Amino acid sequence: MSAGSSVPAEARKRAAELARIVEQHGRLYHVLDAPQISDAEYDALFRELQLLEEAYPALRGPDSPTLRVGGAVLDSLGARAHSRRMYSLDNAFSLEEWRDFVQRLGRLAPDAAPDFWAEPKMDGLAMELIYERGVLAAALTRGDGDKGEVVTENMRTVRNVPLRLAPRLGGPPDLLEVRGEVVITRADFAALNSRRLAAGEKPFANPRNASAGSVRQLDSRVAASRPLRFLAYGVGRVEGAAPWATQGETMLGVRDLGLQIAPGACLLPTADDVEAWFQELAARREDYDFELDGGVVKVNSLALQERLGHTARAPRFALALKFEALRARTRLLDITVQVGRTGALTPVALLEPVNVGGVTVSRATLHNEDEIRARDIRLGDTVFVRRAGDVIPEVLGPVEEARTGEEREFRFPEVCPECGEPVSRREGEAVRRCLNRLCPAVRRESVRHFVSKAGLDIQGLGSKWIEQLVNRGLVASPADLFRLTGEDLAGLDRIGDKLAANFLQAIAGAGRSATLPRLLRALGIRHVGAQTAAALARAFGSLDALAAAPAEALLRLPDVGPEVAGSVADFFAGEGNRTLLRDLRALGIWPVEKTALTPPGPETRRGKQLGLDMAAPAAAGPLAGLTILFSGSLSGLTRSGAERLAEEAGARLASGVSRRLDILVAGDSPGSKLDKARALGTRILSGEEFLELLGRNGFREEKEEG
Fold first, then answer.
1. 13, 121, 453, 608: which is the annotated catalytic residue?
2. What confidence score (pLDDT) does residue 70 get?
3. What is the DSSP string of 634-684?
4. Closest to 310 (Cα-Cα) out of 499, 132, 87
């Protein structure tokens, strides 16, 4: 006899009736904002259903409203693949970029005259809800787009998420993947922070952080206690009856099934209508209940969407129109100088804390000393600060009318702030460097780089752990990581036996799996990125051969110019680096490229790679075969980020301006490289033109979700 058969028929009937009534009134209250009964009446019905389910557990199905109080505690959040990739969106930061997008649509589909579906862009956590036969079966975060974290139990507690889709003619689809954002209203966010402050807890920085943190809790009761909402913006896979031909029909159909969609979503007949809509949206952004960072516009026809397709990153049929970066005024208290792994000295503004678009900013980039001088930024200035692309804080410049005369010029240090050794600035560079390889900061940052994703990608060893290891004298060079023991790690703050064992396992595994190109990148040789490291590994096959290579052999490689060759030679000539390499060899971390080529001979010339016939084919992309160099600071994009985009597009990275250079991308304060490139007739692009060339207009680097 099954457990369910022992439930009295009367109890089963009453439980079904209560579940229907509670869910109906929950929707009226949380979705439609039109309650028909008092809170006390609702609570009484809810409590009666709880008591029935406690008496007869078989009555609690996967769509029971009582699941909204939470209770499931997980060991960890698992991962699951999306059946269809959850793409990012390309961004536009002006109406000119929107018009460019419309022109591209015209080139891709010249016979089409599309209309558009537009909706406010909610600043929340992207989520996918999976309904099977109308019942919520799973919920996944966006994750990396291919797979996401499984947060089903937490999303069951979100009050406006239907646990069972509303009935409609023909019933819901057999499978429906609904995609949207998890958000918190401004009013709910303010109330949530008030409660946290009253309880002595740290307030959340902004609604998005609160949403993301709530959804990722292992205890679903935490998510249940937070005022989360889900707003749908699209669908993934659909199986079964779903007679939708347009984006608008899809979203209205999703709404009819019981899900909320973005307030103000609408159909716009023409591109001109989109412009008028976006201008009104920007003017009224503060009137919305939710935090907005722009609007999203999609081609309405699903058939045309399918025809336009996707790039590797984003759909070609959709665009995020972003609001102008938010900015605020604050006071520049001081400028500190940080020392990186290559000895580069970088100025950082220390600011009187200010709220910029929901984030408290107290530090911001100043790029380099030329930038400070060009913008006439002085200590004590009142300055404008913005989050470039609403992400990276930067100082725009001084508020000159606010000056009192007490502001002071900032003088860049002549000695390293970490070790006290003199610093130097090479001709043509905007950066001063500490040349002391024993500088504590250089050591610390070198180890950080070695374990990072750009290096050996040793999982779990973040910056705080590296700082402890270096400060306690346990690690002075990357080789020391492989000598660590459990006893060494036991002395670190907040580390137990299990975590120590995980660290040691991750370090050993990274050493065993290290390839020659990855190790070359991890060593932090200046100007040697992913593509150059791969080229060096293919050409020379081992660190021994590379260390012994004469400069002329390096210069014959297509990815290597005089500056790169000089950096490689300087690295292998350094006594500290030679000691590191000897240590790595002794530890067994000495990978060899099995498919290495014979080093190029004197007959090699550009365009005739006789010594590189077996090299991997050049990457395909809009910059395939071109050599590119970046100079100056690019708004919303770091140098490493720009170089990564260029390499992904098939370009080779140059180390300096020469006749072999095809493109110079010049940002703010590009220095003498711009003049030299002009003299040579080199093609010069702005940062925006570079991104447009890649088809990534308005792209801005974003911080990983924490």
1. 121
2. 52
3. BTTB-HHHHHHHHHHTTPEEPSS--TT--EEEE-BS-THHHHHHHHHT-EE
4. 87
Average pLDDT over residues 593-616: 40
121 is a catalytic site residue: yes
**Which residues are registered as beta bridge partners of 79?**
149
**What pLDDT is recorded for position 606?**
29
Query: 208 and 269: one domain?
Result: yes
State the Cα–Cα distance between residues 47 and 152, nearest whole angstrom. Answer: 23
- Among residues of the chain, what percentage have pLDDT more than 70? 87
One domain for residues 123 and 250 = yes
The predicted structure's pLDDT at residue 305:
94
Residues 310 and 332 in one domain: no
Partnered with residue 365 across adjacent β-strands are 348, 394
Note whether residue 300 is domain-resident: yes
600: amino acid identity, one letter: P
Place of tokens 């500290």: 576
Asked if residue 652 and residue 508 are part of one domain, the reply reads no
3-state secondary structure of 370: helix
Structural contact between residues 689 and 668, judged by C-beta atoms closer than 8 angstroms? no
- In the predicted structure, residue 271 carries a pLDDT above the cut 70: yes
Residue 504 lies in a domain: yes
Q: Are residues 386 and 302 in the same domain?
A: no
- Domain around 644: 618-706
The yes-or-no verdict on residue 667 having pLDDT over 60 is: yes
Does one domain contain both 255 and 301? Answer: yes
Can you give the pLDDT at residue 566?
86
Name the residue among 393, 352, 347, 389 with its Cα closest to residue 371: 347
**Which of 424, 458, 476 is where one domain is finished?**
424
- Residue 558 lies inside a defined structural domain of this protein: no
Tell me 326's DSSP state: P
Assign 635 a pLDDT band (cuts: 50, 70, 90): low
Two tokens, residue 628: 């590119």
Q: Is the pTM of this model over 0.85?
A: no
Residues 6+ apart with CB under 8 A from 265: 117, 118, 119, 120, 251
| Beta pairing, strands 125-132 & 392-398 | unpaired
Q: For the packed helices 639-648 and 530-540, what is the interaxial angle rounded to 10 degrees? A: 60
For the stretch 414-436, pLDDT in tens is 999 999 999 988 877 788 988 88
Find tokens 């998420």 and name the residue.
161
Domain boundary (375, 390, 424) is at: 424
pLDDT mean over 103-123 = 92
Indicate the angle between helix axes 39-55 and 9-30, nearest 10 degrees: 140
- Give 474-497 pLDDT, tens digit per residue: 998 999 999 999 999 988 888 888
pLDDT in tens, 11-30: 788 888 887 887 777 666 55
Q: Domain holding 655: CATH number?
A: 3.40.50.10190
49: domain CATH number?
Answer: 1.10.287.610
Q: What single letter denotes the amino acid at residue 154?
A: N
Who contacts 65 (Cβ-Cβ below 8 Å, separation ≥6)? Answer: 19, 22, 23, 26, 46, 49, 163
CB-CB neighbours of 448 under 10 Å: 21
Q: How far apart are CA 102 and CA 270, in angstroms?
A: 10
Average pLDDT, the chain: 83
Dihedral Cα 272, 274, 276, 279, nearest 10 deg: -140
Please state whether 66 falls in left (phi above 0), alpha (psi between -120 and 50) or beta. Answer: alpha
Q: Three-class SS of residue 190? A: helix
CATH number of the domain that 143 lies in?
3.30.470.30
Of the candidates 182, 79, 77, 80, the one whose C-alpha atom is nearest the C-alpha of residue 125 is: 182
- 191 and 218 co-located in one domain: yes
Nearest partner of 376 among 410, 401, 346, judged by Cα: 410
User: What pLDDT score does 600 carry?
Assistant: 44
CATH of the domain at 395: 2.40.50.140
Least confident range from 18-27, 177-186, 362-371: namely: 18-27
Looking at the structure of the chain, the number of domains it has is 5
Confirm whether 348 is domain-assigned.
yes
Residues 199 and 255 grouped into a single domain: yes
